[in-house]
Amino acid sequence: MCSGSHQSAERQSISSTDCGSDIPATSLARALLLLGDGLPCFPCRIAKKPTPLRGFKDATCDPDALRELWKKRPGPLVGATTGEISGHEKRARGLAQF
Questions:
Q1: What residue spans define the domains of the chain?
Q2: In this predicted model, what pLDDT tens digit does every residue of 23-67 receive, in sequence order?
Q3: Helix (H/G/I), strand (E/B), else coil: 94
């Protein structure tokens, strides 16, 4: 679970130059918003598979690390760790509505 220390940073505007194209920039912007809710995030492919080499284990709560991850391994979808590992096991069902 992410601490609230980065919440104001995630709310800033994201441009397509942050990661090279409009689709990843949009997913990055959404991931940064989820960080504000305390969810560690990572990029995913259209097939809902993580793009980072270590999968969900590369999820991060740090906005700068997340931007770097999106530059190196961009994806059109956002993955967020849920369940026991994240401390959000009770919220996991609610994320499907996001």
A1: 4-95
A2: 667 899 999 998 888 889 999 999 999 999 998 899 999 999 999
A3: helix
